[in-house]
Every structure is written in C-alpha cells, then in structure tokens.
Structures
1.
Amino acid sequence: MITIGGRNELAPDVVNSMHAFRHEIFVRRLGWSLPMIEGVERDQYDNEDAIYFIARDPADRITACARLLPTTRECLLSELAGELLGHNPPPQDPWIWELSRFATSVRKSGEGRVLTLSQPTLDLLAAIIDFARQRDIKRLVLGTCVAIERLLIRAGFDIHRLAAPRRMPDGLFVVVFIEVHPELHPVAFRDAS
C-alpha cells in the first residue's frame, strides 16, 4: 500500500513511522550524520511544502519512502549539495521538483553489493511518477549514490546526470534528472536483477 500526502494530511503515527524508518536507513544502516528532531531523522525541509510517499507491506511496516519538494522553494539540493552540481546552478523551476529522502530496503549480495530495487520500491517510484505527471511536472531532481542511479537506469527510468559524480564522506554521489515522460507508463518499471 502506498500513502501520499503532506504532513497535515497524513496521520501523525504514519509521519512518525516514516521518520523512524528514515533514521533506520540513513543513520543506523548507512551511518550518515543527519539532523535529529524529537529523536527521529527530520530536517527543515520536512515542512508544509513537502509531499510524502510511503510504501507499507501487508503487516503495515514501512518498506520505502520519499519526499517531493518544489524547486521554486527552499529545498535540500539547493542548500546543501552545491558541490554535486558542478558549475550548474541549482534547479529553480515550477516544472522541476526535488526527490529527496528516498529511503528503501534493497536486496544485497553476500559481499554487500546492492542488487536490485524491490517491487514495493518500484511501485512507490511509479506513484511518484504518476503524481508528477498529473501535476505536469517535467523532471525530478535527485541527489543519490551511484549504485542507486544504476538501479534506476536498469529499472527503466530515463535519467541523466547534471555533473560528474563526487566522492563525499558517505560514498560516491551524483545529482540526476529523472525525466517524467507522458507516454511512459510506470508499469514499465521493472526489477532489474
């Protein structure tokens, strides 16, 4: 099941569970140093502009989540990741929205290599594309690690980089545009294992 809405549209327990899931993925598993508010991973961009996408399994556990923000307002990429943009200015366009805090459980090999995005994660991304298409959003911009970039490409997303990847304390990162094509139906996204 996928839930979509702003902070004031979602039940408080759903929002709190999402923040706890983000903390588990970003802070505990990946070891990132991220802001904590009220004991969970939350930042100043978790505001009234944010639209959340939350995937839950049949037992009601969160398996993936993401946040969309308009680039015409304050967003994570323009404030924090300037070095990832190379010589490009941060996008500020009503037709481009930022996809951030994309957290998911992924399948890994015995050596820890990421193998594939799960079907619930692909369903979540399909819901994001549908949401964007319905609002005439043309592109999503995402800062991510190159492993996730590769998985998105293998799953059928039309992606291109804004600049060369950069080594950051938490790994090799890149900023990409995800094109929102009217003719591409999200059912086309596939498990690329």
Note: Residues 12-29 form the longest helix (18 residues).
2.
Amino acid sequence: MLNDLQYISMFSHSTPEIVMNLAVALLCGLLIGGLYRATYRGSGYVPGFTRSLIMLSMITAVVIMIIGNNLARAFGLVGAMSIIRFRTAVKDTMDIIFIFFSLATGMAAGVGYYRIAIVATLFIGAVFLVISKTHAALPKKREYLLQFYSQTGDKTTPAYQNILDEYCRNYSMINVKSIEEHDLVELSYHIRLKDPLTNSEFVHKLSSIRGVRHVNLFFDQENF
C-alpha cells in the first residue's frame, strides 16, 4: 500500500501540451484582466493588478502541471508556498473574486480542461459584465457620509453648495465643527448621490473648489 502511494502515476506532458495549456491560461487571463479593467469602478485602479491576474492564471497552470497526479509533489509545493508572506492588502472584495477567477481558470487549463476553462471564463465574465452594467447588485438607496474642511468667510452661498446640488439627490448636514487654529470648519453631511458611480468625480470636483480641503466620502467603511 505504501509503495502504491509513493508511486502514484504521474502525467508526462509533451511540449505541445505544455504550450497549449499555457496558451489557454493566457487567453483566459487576458479575458479576465480585460473584464477587470472594464468594470472597475473604484478610485485607485492599479494597472499592475490587471497584469498580475494574467500571470496568475498562467502560473497556476504551471503549478498544476508540476503536481500532476503526485501526492508527494502536492505536499511539497504546499510546504514551499507556505513560507511566502503576502504583504499586499486587498482593498476591494471584488479583487479577491478576480484572484480566485484567475486561479480557477489556470487550474482548468493546467489539467487540460480547455473547454471548461474557456466556457467558464466567457460565461462568468458575461454574467459579471451584465451585473456591472445594469447595477443589479447595487442597493436602491446608497447613503454616504461626506466630510470636508471649508474656510470660514462671507455670508454668501458657499461654492461647494452648487456641487452638492449637481451630484446629490438629497443631502443633510449632521455636524459642524470649528477648527479655530486654521480658520476652518469641519462639515459632515449625509448624502445620496444621483449616480453612485460618480463618487470619484464628485470628490475630485469638490476638492478643486477654493477653500475646500480634506474631502472624504465614506460608505460601508470604504474611503474614496
């Protein structure tokens, strides 16, 4: 029995098979990376993450080909990978989804399941694209907490009021705090944007107003 476990059959991949596995993994990685780039709505898009998704799919395929059907290799690779420390924090839960997406397609390509890899990439990608474009997963009412500093000045209507009227469906002031040392007031609002996808543009325009500083927009512990 022990000998049987030690000499479990191993797949021997020919060069054309290796190239084909990597090509399918590359194709799926490119599709996943393009989908991520097209649907990302955050304010901190990192091009390197898109490239990482492509490489992750191919590297996963290589790992699966190395493991093959050999338990000893599998445990050896698990031990080797366990010493790696990943220090990059994942800021968005969707980033984790795309990481697993690349891993899954890379695994399928690595074992030669090309149809599963390609069909799954196309189908899951199409579903995610539809959800993203139709905003089906967004809540009907999405409230934000807006905080910023504004200089105290004349009694006229402040310039930021026009920006609030332009981007917000409704808003209400919840707190005003005086910052005497810098002749500033800290303002806090509960707001509801007309279009939740314009949060980055809204923050940028508000920050560009003279006298407005340190603009922060919060929702579910996310800071834009």
Note: The chain has two domains: 2-134, 143-223.
